[in-house]
Design a protein that fits this description.
Layout: H1 2-12, E1 23-28, H2 46-61, E2 66-71, H3 81-86, E3 113-117, H4 128-134, E4 139-145, H5 147-160, E5 164-173, H6 177-190, E6 193-195, H7 197-205
Parallel strand pairs: 1-2, 1-4, 2-3, 4-5, 5-6
Length: about 210
């Protein structure tokens, strides 16, 4: 079945974008909710964070612009609109909630930009697009949580705005392997390049 699927998709979708001349890195929603076993959003994604941090540290060494996203809602959740109603567990991201904070290992530097959002895509109603455009960025290296949600939404919007999305499979995570793998497959086929941590680290070193 997998061989048939690969043949079917490769017939129509077999191109790659590659990393351009001006990349930026984004770490999407690495917040405490996904790492606290007492939280209903817990996703067992510690390895994805570890990979993202290794990539982040390499990007720092290369002076590549780094962005982080988090999710913050007003106390009544109204700025989340229908999305907040559809997914009540998003109440864990109401302003002041400890679940909306960074894990201890995610040390954000003052020169690294935090993008706060209310919806899946890091581009929707945020300053990310204007920040990337100002910096003449042509490639967005994407890590984060969750693969089938905010990572995928950001990837689709990135290519829609003319950027090259490069999704790092080791540095993305989801609460179940099936949507994770399906989303990686779909993004690689249609919206960007899905590569390994090893591949992007090789890029940083050459």
């Amino acid at each position: 079945m997998n061989e048939e699927l690969d043949l079917n998709y490769n017939f129509a979708f077999a191109n790659s974008l590659g990393i351009g001349e001006r990349p930026a890195l984004i770490l999407i929603d690495f917040v405490q909710a996904y790492f606290d076993e007492a939280c209903p959003l817990y996703a067992d994604v510690e390895e994805a964070l570890e990979s993202a941090l290794r990539i982040r540290n390499a990007a720092r060494d290369e002076n590549i612009p780094i962005f982080y996203t988090n999710v913050i809602y007003e106390k009544d959740g109204k700025n989340g609109g229908a999305f907040f109603k559809k997914v009540p567990v998003l109440s864990n991201f109401i302003i002041g909630s400890p679940m909306a904070e960074w894990p201890a290992s995610l040390d954000v530097r003052p020169d690294e930009k935090i993008i706060s959002k209310q919806f899946p895509s890091a581009f929707f109603r945020t300053s990310l697009l204007s920040n990337l455009t100002t910096l003449n960025i042509d490639t967005l290296i994407i890590t984060g949580l969750t693969t089938s949600g905010c990572v995928r939404a950001t990837c689709v919007d990135a290519i829609s705005y003319g950027f090259r999305p490069i999704v790092i499979e080791d540095a993305c995570g989801d609460r179940h392997h099936a949507p994770h793998e399906a989303s990686l497959f779909d993004m690689n086929a249609k919206y960007g390049d899905v590569v390994s941590e090893k591949e992007v680290m090789h890029y940083f070193l050459t």
